[in-house]
Amino acid sequence: MSVLPHRRSATRSLRDDGWAGVLFALPHFALFTVFVLAPVVYGFYISLHRWHILAKTHPLIGLGNYGAALSDDVFRIALWNTVYFVVLVVPVGNLVSLLLALGLAGVRRFQTFYKISYYLPVVISIAVVAVLWRWLYNTQIGLLNLYLEAVVGGLRSIGLPLPAFEPLPWLSNPSWVMPSIALLSIWWGAGGNMVLYLAGINNIPEDYHEAAVIDGANSWQRFWAVTWPLLRPTTLFCLVFSVLGAFQIFGQTYVLFAPGSGPARSGLTLALYMYQQGFSQYEIGYGAAIAYLLFALVLILTVIQFRLLSNRDDEPSQANRRTA
Amino acid sequence: MKKQRREFMRTPLNTPTRLRSCVLLLVFLSLLLTFGCTRSGDRNREGTDTGGKTVVDFWNGFTGPDGKMMERLVRRFQKENPDVSVRMQIIPWGTYYDKLTLSLAYGGAPEVFVVHAGRLAEFAAFDVLRPLDDLYAAAQPPVRAEQFAAVPWQASFYKERPMGLPLDVHPMGLYYNTRLFEKAGIVDAAGKAKPPADWDEFVQAARKLTKDTNEDGRTDQWGFVFTWQRTNFITFAAQFGGGILSPDGKSCAMDSPQTREALRRMHDLIYKYKVAPKPEGVDAWLAFRQGKAAMALEGLYMVTSLEEQKSLSFAGAPVPQFGPERGVWGGSHLLCQPREIAPGRAQAAWRLMRFLSQNSLSWAEGGQVPARVALRQSPKFAALPVQAQFARQLSHVRYDPLTPKINALFPFVDPAVEAVLLDLQTPEEATSDACRRIEQVLKRP
After folding, report:
1. Closest Cα to residue A106, out of A227, A238, A189, A237?
2. Cα–Cα distance measured from residue B23 to residue B266, given in angstroms and rounded to the nearest whole number
3. Average pLDDT over residues A261-270
4. How far apart are the first and last CA of chain B?
5. Distance CA A17, CA A9 (A)
6. Cβ atoms < 10 Å from Cβ of B147
7. What is the pLDDT of residue B10?
8. Which of A25, A35, B43, B427 gets the highest tally of CB atoms within 10 A of its CB?
9. Which residues contact B373 (CB under 8 A, 6 or more apart)?
10. pLDDT value of residue B218
């Protein structure tokens, strides 16, 4: 056997096995390993130790940090606040995005202008958004209270029996804090999902609508019987990603409240608590454990949502089978 | 030409030359990564830069007018010590300790840095500070206790070893708006604004100063305002014989009857006497600066910003005697060195520390009381009106509890005080809640 043919076959196999592809992927894989995979694994290792940044030794305590977090009532407060935020922001936020998209789909002139206008907040950094809204929310001199006062004053002057306006404690009363943060977050993020919904709506073939019109459907019936069911994949996609994003809420409360995390800890979220433990208390072992608990929670929810997604997709085919 | 290019693009990637260049590119990229992550511009081990000068890095958090004072002092030091090159870095206090902690843990710590008295124990307990006793003894004249005010001197020790050279003290004091006082008739025999000296006088004055000036049914001028709740609380608690921790630092004292009484008095100012606004959506310090609040308890470091505001007539006085004991919150800046310091640089760093300490009188103008007794007793210091008034309280200054765990305790102290002042919880509820958590932290190894 000569050497040459053998070599040729080796090069061929290299090509056929996709080694070239592997080589192309290597730079990304190297970066991914160094900056994502290794820290993720190392983070888990850290979470199994009592690990203060300044300490010379880091004793292994197994799942001790996890146990401590689950019995830590501040952790529970943070968990509750986070869940509350998700519950507030995901349904309402998606509804707002959907309504905006529906509205925009009907606009013929200046559609791009409106699209850009509604999308603009999405590209602003959360630090800027939070500082901006801190001023809007200011109880004494905030624009929101100023306008509300003017509106209430105006309604009273035309004889409506309204009580005198009391400045709303947007960010200073514990029970107002999360709804206020949710409002800010919806304003900030609604444009993102709006674009997705709009794309989903535009993907629905015009024929369906025409058929519905011929059948005499009004606009509500057309939405309910055509748009809504055909938009389901988009809706579920948006919901899954909204939930993922909402659970990781950090920037808003960090910028608005910083160390104390709001009156009576009403703005303390899991990501913020993790940050505080890791980078203010320097207990990075405990912080890492909180991060992994948050990860587990989000993972479970995502799996559940994906199950729902695939089940829903099965439904029409099952229905078809039944009718057949 | 076009054909050639197409041919080129079609050339299989896995021909040996192409493969080799790919591998080379990858090696180059990984080298880039490796070297990109190493520290650049590291000085040599003797700590000299190219000009033969000893480099001393100096970190602090003096971002306000005090930073300018410090810059001036450092420039003077440079002139007198041409063989040393000081590189001062001012990092906002909000992130200062994060950066300092990381540098002490993973390298890159400065040769001289500022630590607050309340945070010293935390760093000392982890053994990252260089004890200064040999430097104190070798100095000419040696550094000794009697040269310093007792409170900061004692606070600069950890396990009987000096860990930081006390630079200053910044006690809390009473700032009051003299124009509002005179308008309300709270004046002495000479017709000048008279600050209250005890609880009764304080409440009385605050009542007179709380007004609805435009008669819309809402108070728009307050007698008093809570600015930093934590330091206000430590002052009140100290005066009623309470505090965050017991004197030995081993148990929580927030649920003691004394601390609860202090919290009740603070609560009363808002809800019983109605002389202070509910701390809800109020920028308290701004309210004082705008003349919407007549009195506030704040640290001495606030004085320069008030002096810069020409429209405000104000004065400073010691905190009124609210309770049976004397006590007022204060802080101190200590100058420290890291445990890992090149021997060549430790001496130059020490020269800078001594210089700053000995010349801290001009530092005092930025809103401080010098820790050195001789400087405090100088006529130049007596001429600083607010500083001299606040300095009268030096003997009974209370720091944040001097425990290595202090940083882990405040997250439970602050919300408790806030809950009381917002009337969300009674002092009893808030403090038993806080103590339960504080005890947990204290029990942690």
Report:
1. A227
2. 71
3. 87
4. 76
5. 12
6. 17
7. 45
8. B427
9. B146, B147, B148, B149
10. 82
Which residue's entry shows tokens 């870095």?
B89
| CATH number of the B172-329+405-443 domain | 3.40.190.10
Instruction: Summarize pLDDT for A69-110 with one digit per residue, the tens.
Output: 998 888 999 999 999 999 999 999 999 999 999 999 988 888
Chain A 22-41, residues with CB within 8 Å of chain B CB atoms: 23, 26-27, 30-31, 34
Q: Which residues of A touch B281 (CB under 8 A)?
A: 138-140, 167, 169-172
Tokens encoding A27? 């730079």
Q: Mark which residues 58-97 of B lie under 8 Å from A by CB.
A: 94
DSSP state of B399: P
Parallel/antiparallel/unpaired status of strands B333-336 and B112-116: antiparallel
Residue with tokens 């808002």: B270
The SS3 call for residue A309 is helix
Residues lower than pLDDT 50 in chain B? 1-14, 39-46
DSSP labels for A51-113?
-BTT-S---B-TTHHHHHHHT-HHHHHHHHHHHHHHHHHHHHHHHHHHHHHHHHHT--TTHHH
Phi, psi of B175 (to 5 degrees): -95, 135
Domains and their CATH numbers in chain A: 8-36 (no CATH), 73-317 (1.10.3720.10)
Structure tokens at A263: 């009156």
What pLDDT is stored for residue A107 in this prediction?
A: 87
Long-range pairs for A287-291: beta carbons < 8 A, 24 or more residues apart = A288/A43, A288/A44, A288/A46, A288/A47, A288/A51, A288/A65, A289/A47, A289/A65, A289/A66, A289/A68, A289/A69, A290/A69, A290/A75, A291/A43, A291/A47
Residue B101 CA from chain centroid, whole number: 16
Other C-beta atoms closer than 10 Å to the C-beta of A119 total 16
Is A156's Cβ below 8 Å from some Cβ in B?
no
Domain with CATH 3.40.190.10 in chain B: 54-167+332-398, 172-329+405-443
List Cα–Cα distances, B97 to A56, B45, B115, B406, B407, in angstroms.
Answer: 19, 26, 9, 13, 11
Nearest to B430 by CA among B263, B206, B223: B263
Q: Do A11 and B15 touch (CB under 8 A)?
A: yes
pLDDT band at A314 (very low <50, low <70, confident <90, very high): very low
Rounded Cα gap, residues B233 and B415, in angstroms: 12
- Say whether B407 and A34 touch across the interface (CB within 8 A): no
A172 touches chain B (CB under 8 A): yes
Instruction: State CA A224 to chain mean position distance.
Output: 26
Query: Angle of helix A270-279 relative to helix A284-323, nearest 10 degrees?
Result: 160
For the stretch B15-42, pLDDT in tens is 556 667 766 766 666 666 555 555 444 4
What's the one-letter identity of residue B198? D
Quick one: CATH architecture of B54-167+332-398? 3-Layer(aba) Sandwich (3.40)
d(CA B372, CA B394): 12
Q: Which residues from chain A sit within 8 angstroms of residue B340, using beta carbons?
A: none
pLDDT surpasses 50 at A316: no
pLDDT at A318 over 60: no
SS3 of B347, please? helix
Cα–Cα distances in angstroms (integers) from residue A195 to residues A117, A122, A201, B362, B400, in the given order? 12, 11, 10, 60, 52
Are the C-beta atoms of residues B243 and B253 closer than 8 Å to each other?
yes
Question: CA of A227, closest CA in chain B: separation in Å?
Answer: 45
